[in-house]
Amino acid sequence: MSVVETVLGPVAADELGDVDAHEHVFLRTPVNPGDEFLDTDKAAAELLRVAAGGIHTVVDLTPVGLGRRPGELAEVSRTSGVHVVAATGFHRSAHYPAAHWARHADDATLLDVLLDDLQTGMDRHDWDFPRPVPTSHKAGIIKLGASYHRIDRHEERWFAAGAAAARDTGVALAVHTEVGTATHAALDLLDKHGVPAGRVLLAHTDRNPDPELHLDLIARGAHLVYDTIGRIKYRPDSVLLDLIEHMAEAGRLNHICLGTDVGRKSSLRAYGGGPGMDVLGRDFVPRLRRRLGDEAVETVLRHTPQALLAKEISGTGLPAVGTTA
């Protein structure tokens, strides 16, 4: 049975509906000091706007140590009616101070952390050592991060741990690419560790809107998430629409997902900012539908992300849905 692990338990992949493939429901990182967002009520309000825009599932790609709140994540999923697929894994090294345990833990510990999040339940305190408190809410995807044009020595170790966890559990693996760089290097390293490109989602590739590069990555089997929708400081959304049209003309929309990757409090409507997490369904999807039609929209919002997120489990039914721990 093709299922996806959400914070409320396994869901059949084809029941995810329209998927925003890159979000952050809660986030705190030293990279963006003062722009953290950790308020449960505001998170629920933001996801209610997402639901009103026609999105049924968000993939929360917040990795270990950056403000994950599994119990509260389950709460806002229930409140909003939006499925939430949570991540485990490690971001690029800039997100972890020099003294952070992830920089110094041995390889076995790094892997154990990821497998616990995926198989037992995410730590209530987001692995703020020394004593983990597992919840019943499991991660359903692995998130890794690469630096600008390179993968540093810490990231290489985290890639190895992430790849091992992906092999053991069958979940997909997302990679932060800084401004869309080091994409081939990321695929090469994951392939070295036994993860095929077809199980990899490369984030922020639209920050480098190079159609030839994107087609080369897809030719290797990779999936791309165009996830800076509404972020006009990078480029107008018309450039992204052109890029999606190029992928459609090449017959490659089945490797494209969409998201908004709202990573700052100042970008969330619940905090008085913008464009808001709902910009995908509210503004961009209608433009994409006018440009390419219903079938293209269904491909990038449903068929592609549902297939990528799915893993196979044995048995005749879904395990019991998790509860708030």
UniProtKB/TrEMBL annotation:
InterPro entries: Metal_Hydrolase, Phosphotriesterase. One of its GO terms (molecular function) is hydrolase activity. The keyword Hydrolase applies. Zn(2+) 2 binds at K143, H176, H204. Zn(2+) 1 binds at H22, H24, K143, D261. Its cofactor is a divalent metal cation. Keywords: Hydrolase, Metal-binding. Binds 2 divalent metal cations per subunit. Pfam families: PTE. Belongs to the metallo-dependent hydrolases superfamily. Phosphotriesterase family. This is Aryldialkylphosphatase. It comes from Streptomyces scabichelini.
